[in-house]
Amino acid sequence: MRVLIVSDTHGRHGNLDRALEEAGEIDVFIHLGDVEGGEEYIGAVVECEKHIVRGNNDFFTDLPREEEFYLDKYKVFITHGHAYYVSLDPEYIFQEGQARKADIVMYGHTHKPFFEQKDGITVLNPGSLSFPRQEGRKGSYILMEIAPDGSLTYDQRYLG
What CA–CA distance (Å, rounded) separates 20 from 17? Predict the structure, then answer.
């Protein structure tokens, strides 16, 4: 299973289109908020299972604030992250993931990639496709793969 994880596109679709093209065939698409009206566009161009949550800049939308679901045997918790103070410290969202018994916690908001595994939980942020803030300022996303044996790989990618 191939899962494309993106965040913070802020209504700009050029880099999203590039990420979709670079990723190739995917089975699941996850957007971690700040879509800013891009839900319809994503619905038109992404033909697989989709999970999209609302970010702090997603006004007048009925997107959920957060979502829990399973990918294969892994329980996933997704949220934009601003309600968990991710700009200050990822510890709060890690604790929330523990409380929810999640295997994987995904968030956005900071516009910087983040990846940490501890105590059986993976916490990740793909960064921003449209307004990256990390050194080098390249749009970023994560391609996650679940192999038939259930093993996981995460590939942090940057647009060239």
Answer: 5
- Could you give the CA distance from residue 118 to residue 136 in angstroms, rounded to a whole number? 27
SS3 string, 53-75, reads CCCCCCCCCCCCCEEEEEECCEE
CB distance 72 to 45 below 8 Å? no
Q: Over 90: is that where the pLDDT of 145 sits? A: yes
Token digits of residue 151: 């093993």
Tell whether pTM > 0.90.
yes
Q: Is the pLDDT assigned to residue 160 strictly greater than 90?
A: no
Amino acid making up residue 115: F
Q: Which long-range contacts (CB under 8 A, 24 or more apart) does 17-26 make?
A: 17/45, 18/139, 18/159, 19/129, 19/139, 19/141, 19/157, 19/159, 20/45, 20/46, 22/157, 22/159, 23/141, 23/143, 23/157, 26/2, 26/143
CB 55 within 8 A of CB 8: yes
- Residue whose entry in the numeric block shows the structure tokens 């993106």: 6
Whether residue 4 contacts residue 157, with contact meaning beta carbons closer than 8 Å, is answered with no
Q: Which two tokens stand for residue 86?
A: 């991710």
DSSP for 73-105 reads TEEEEEE-SGGGTTTT-THHHHHHHHHTT-SEE
Interatomic CA distance for residues 130 and 32, integer angstroms = 13
